[in-house]
Amino acid sequence: MSEQSQTEAHLQLAESEQRYRAAIDNAHDMIQSVRPDGTFEFVNKSWLDTLGYSADEVPALDIWDIIHDSSREHCQLYFSKALGGESIPYMEAVFRTRGGDPVPVEGSVTNRYLGDTIIATHGFFRNITERLHAEELERQNAALVRDEQARYLEKMAALGKLSAGLAHELNNPAAAVGRASARLTAALANRDDALNTLVSQGISKQQCRRLTGLAAAPAPGPEEQLGPLERDRRESEIEEVLDELGVPQGWSLAAGLAQAGQTGTSIRELATQVPQGDLAPTLRWVDATNATKESVEILTRSSRRITELVQAIKGYTHMDRAAEQQVDLHDGIESTLTILNHALRDVTVTRDFDRSIPAIRVHGNTLNQVWTNVLDNAADATGGSGAIAIRTRREDDCAVVEIEDDGAGIAEADLHRIFEPFFTTKPQGVGTGLGLDTAWRIVTEEHGGTITVESRPGRTLFRVTLPLDQRR
Ligand SMILES: Nc1ncnc2c1ncn2[C@@H]1O[C@H](COP(=O)(O)OP(=O)(O)OP(=O)(O)O)[C@@H](O)[C@H]1O
Ligand SMILES: [Mg+2]
Questions:
Q1: Stretch 319-340: mean pLDDT, rounded?
Q2: Whose CA is nearest to atom 23 of ligand 1?
Q3: How far is the CA of 343 from the centre of ligand 1 (A)?
Q4: In the beta sheet, which residues pair with residue 64?
Q5: pTM, rounded to two decimals
Q6: CA 20 to 30 Å from 266, out of 200, 384, 401, 422?
Q7: Which one is predicted more confidently, 320 or 139?
Q8: What gap in Å lies between CA 96 and CA 32, rounded to an integer?
Q9: Domain range spanning residue 406?
């Protein structure tokens, strides 16, 4: 080759190398060429920028200076594979910047040969920090959505349980109201009827006063009510006396008259004071008046119970108050106990309350969910018929609420898991395992308190501690 053509060839080569160099330097990916001893033959601009080195520093580095510890073993394997002649179409690794920060990358590695000898491995890598970050965010989002859905379902299930219990609680007094008002209607008609008979028979003023006197005798309260044996005895006695005195259908009056506090003797005495024909309507009047009083009594009691339940529901949900408020802990506990009455019917609940604990600042009705979930578990644990003790006290600047049951207890192996979402030992469809997770979040995250548990067979104690001044 002539000297001129040699120079031209050199120029062409230099020009082509410059072109490649420019392409490599402008590449967005990190490109490196590594000699078999691990030192760098060349690296591009993106590599320098990403890892924070200047070009002057590169000759003093080797590949292990830029591999993060977490990725060292993994890269050693790939590097020896590459030096053994394998190309690596895809790999992930974690690089390390000059300052020591990890840089997750993905890329590929190929070899450059001179004859049969590998003289360098070429690596092309892409910084995937952002992509991993986006993926992580997406995962967290999906987990949040899942959690939210689960919590929503838990809320619905809890609401379902509560409303079933409440329906049951309300049903008793509501049914009693229905029965009492039907009885009241009949009693009023009977009373009018008896009075009409008496008036048509020309009742005297004196008899009228006596009637009022008989009506004034208070119906016996529940505590004065006769035992079943004594009541039966008194009814038969009254029935006999009515028979003796020739009162028609005396048997239908005996129960009511016994209930009204009459006895065989008092009826005999009455018979001496009223004209013969007036005795039966007088007794019917007494019986009907007593039924009236009893019905009114039941109506009063039942409507009081309905009011109590409605108050408890209001107290429980705080539906008539602001989201954040100062409340007396005990009110919430009492409302919850009323609402859970159906589950606690045969459980002995004892209270040892320090009523002097100052009001605490709460968020809506959420604390009531804590009492509900812990009490619900306690009721489950006692099989519906054990004992639950609720204690409150003040400890420094905290209110402490303890709920203890005498149920079977929590297995040692489960103890550290019970606050985990979805951890349940109950059959499918009975427990979702979110009760204590919800309680934990409300106590710690929403109210800055703590919730702990101690358990052995026959005694499980949940302790909730709430800071008194919640204005953190
Ligand atoms: N007082 C307790 N006695 C015995 N075990 C309990 C008690 N409280 C909680 N546990 C255990 O902790 C587990 C988790 O309770 P958690 O309230 O979170 O869920 P769950 O009661 O199973 O279901 P959910 O409350 O969602 O209906 C229960 O399954 C039970 O094994
Ligand atoms: Mg539960």
A1: 80
A2: 431
A3: 15
A4: none
A5: 0.60
A6: 200
A7: 139
A8: 14
A9: 318-467
